[in-house]
C-alpha cells in the first residue's frame, strides 16, 4: 500500500463527506482508525473531527475500541471492511465511499461483469478523480486525457466554473420538458448561433447519435419537400462511425456493425474516400454526412481543402 493510494482514499472520503455527497457512518470511522497506524497522513484528523460531530466523543471512543479488532488484518482488508476476504459478493452492499480501495479496480471489474451489459471492451483502469485534463486512477497513476472523455469534457474534469453553474442550476430546477419555455436553453442557443456566424437555429440532443438522427430527418424532410424527385439518399464514408441507434448504425460505414440488427432503413451509400463522394451523388441524394476526423480506423483527419470543395 503506497502513501499515494492511501492519500487518494482518505481524500475521497473527506471530499464526499464535506460536499454532502454521502453521510459519514460509524463504519467509516472504524475503518479510518484501524488503518491510521499505517500512515501519519494528517487529513485523518479531519475524519476524527467529522466523527465526533456526527456521533459524539463517547461514540468515537467506542468505535476506536472496535477498530482494534481489525488491526491484525492485512491492510487491504481494512479498506474494504469485510472479514470474509474471498467473497466479493458480500462487499456489494458497502457504502460507496469504501469502494475506492486498494482492491477498487478488481471489485469494479467483478461488479461490472455481473451487473453491466457487456457492450464495451474495457481497459483495466478505473479513474476516480480528474483535474482539468489530468486524470488519476485507483492506483494513484496520473494520465492526460487527450480524448476529452470521448468528446464530452472539452472544458476539463472538475472545471470550477462548470461545476458551479451545474450546482447552482440543480438547486433551482433539475429538468424541464421541451413542452415549456426554457430560458437557459434559449440563451445557450443564442450564444452558439452568434459565435458560429451562421444563419441557423439549434437542435439540442442527448447524444451524438440523437444529433445525427435529427440531422438525417432534417435532410430527408428537405429532400421530400423540395423538387419533383424525392431525395432520400445519404452518402457516408467507409470506416466511419455515426452512432448506435438502428439508423445511425446503418449510416456507419462498417459492415461488422451491421450484423444482427437488420432490417435497416434504406438509403445509405458508402464512399471509399472523400474523393469518391462526388461520383456517388445522383438525383436522389439529399445529404453527405462525414466526420472531419475519423476515429474508428485510426485517427484520420480529412483534408480541409477537399471538405471545402465538397461543400
The H/E string reads HHHHHHEEEHHHHEHEHEEEH
Low-confidence stretches: 70-102
Beta-strand percentage range = 5-15%
Let me know the number of strands: 8
> What is the end-to-end distance?
58 Å
Q: What's the number of structural domains? A: 4
Output the number of helix runs: 13
Shape: elongated
SS-derived structural category: mainly alpha
Radius of gyration, in angstroms, nearest whole number:
27 Å
Mean pLDDT: 77
**Proportion of residues in helical segments:** 40-55%
Strand order of the largest sheet: 1-2-3
The largest sheet is: 3 strands, antiparallel
What does this 3D model show about the protein?
There is one protein chain. 42% of the residues lie in helices and 9% in strands. Strand 2 and strand 3 form a beta hairpin. It has helices at 3-18, 26-35, 44-55, 57-67, 75-80, 104-115, 148-151, 160-170, 183-196, 208-225, 246-251, 277-280, 304-310; strands spanning 127-131, 134-137, 142-144, 233-237, 268-271, 285-288, 293-294, 300-301. With 311 residues, the protein is mainly alpha-helical. The model is unreliable at 70-102 (pLDDT under 50). The termini are far apart. Helix 2 (26-35) runs antiparallel to helix 3 (44-55) and helix 3 (44-55) crosses helix 4. The chain has 13 helices and eight strands. It has a three-stranded antiparallel beta sheet, with no helix packed on it. It folds into four domains: 3-124, no CATH class; 125-174, no CATH class; 175-203, no CATH class; 205-310, Aspartate Aminotransferase, domain 2 (3-Layer(aba) Sandwich).
